[in-house]
Amino acid sequence: MTAIQSRRPPAHSRRSSGQPAARNRIWDAGPLTKVVLAFALVLSAFPIYYMFIMATRTNEEAIDVPPPLLPGGHLGENVSRLLSTEDAYFMTGLVNSAIVSVTVTLSVVLISTLAGFAFAKLRFRGAKILLGLILVTMMVPLQQMGVVPLYELMVTLGWTGQLKAVILPFLVNGFGVFMMTQYATQAVPDELVEAARVDGASTMRIYANVILPALRPGMAVLALLVFMQTWNEFMWPLIVLNPDNPVVQTSIAALNQAHGTDYVMLFTGTAASVLPLFIVFIAFGRQIVGGLMEGAVKA
Fold it and tell me: Where would you find the membrane-spanning parts of this chain (predicted)?
């Protein structure tokens, strides 16, 4: 793989030449731009902040006028009530959503990168037709149109009420395949793949040593999007799962039906359902943004 390494500039030189300039361009924005962005940030963040504030209050405090804007001291009590309620099976919903979201995300990222590599860098008969069919699946709302036959299939297989009924239909994502195809086309030069072949690398070694390192920023973005979409999925789990084996979104719906006037319970459940998304973004957000900035500077 010496030819491959000789064609790659050092990682530190790529970062040092591009990222400081990008940061300087951001901070060179005018005062009006910064004020507008700060205002938009406050408008976007305040509902989330208020949701967490209400999760620390009591129902009497939640309906006070003016409403409280600082944390209270009842968070532990509210979380305990949420986890002990027998109407929503909230803890079961959190665990089920984590299992489903992680499984679907790993599958979509793996299959999308493999398919994207194949469509972008390998030559085989019918590639354009297959890619066109994938684009068609993105244009047609298959989940809404196919919910009846898909449910009949789950009944026939005896999978209703089981997590595999909400995992299997989403293991492949047309958008992910298309995104990775476009990303691989732009991020990996054909000369780099040809150099790897000249060095005697097999197709899978090219995928592992050449394609995957170049696709990491796109994979991180795709993983975050798929995880969020799967975590927030509501309609299909509501149809195919039982109330005693829910995902987190159907647990919140059950909370709304059983405790519609218990506002603190609803705020606490919603905050608990959003918290894993914050954790995922905090853990991987810097890598995602940094990878996108590096890719933008390269382009």
Answer: 32-52, 88-117, 129-151, 163-185, 206-228, 263-284
Task: Give mean pLDDT in consecutive 10-residue pieces for the chain, a chain of 299 residues.
Answer: 47 45 59 89 90 89 83 87 83 93 95 93 88 86 81 92 92 91 88 88 88 88 90 92 90 81 86 88 72 51
* Structural domain boundaries in the chain: 90-258
The predicted structure's pLDDT at residue 299: 46
What's the rounded Cα separation, in Å, for the pair 169 and 247?
A: 16
Q: Which positions ≥6 away from 251 have C-beta within 8 Å? A: 88, 89, 90, 92, 93, 94, 269, 273
According to the model, what pLDDT value does residue 1 have? 47
- In this structure, which amino acid lies at residue 293? M
Residues 6+ apart with CB under 8 A from 175: 138
| Gap between the Cα atoms of 229 and 234, Å rounded | 10
Token pair, residue 8, equals: 């790659």
Exposure string over 227-252, b if 16+ CB within 10 A, otherwise e: bbbbbebeebbebbbeeeebbbbbbb
Of 149, 124, 285, 129, residue with least CA distance to 217: 285
Annotation: CATH topology of 90-258: MetI-like fold (1.10.3720)
User: Please, where are the H alpha helices in 28-64?
Assistant: 31-54, 59-62
pLDDT at 283: 78
The string of DSSP codes covering 169-205 is GGSS-HHHHHHHHHHHHHHS-HHHHHHHHHTT--HHH
- What is d(CA 58, CA 265) in angstroms, rounded to the nearest whole number? 9
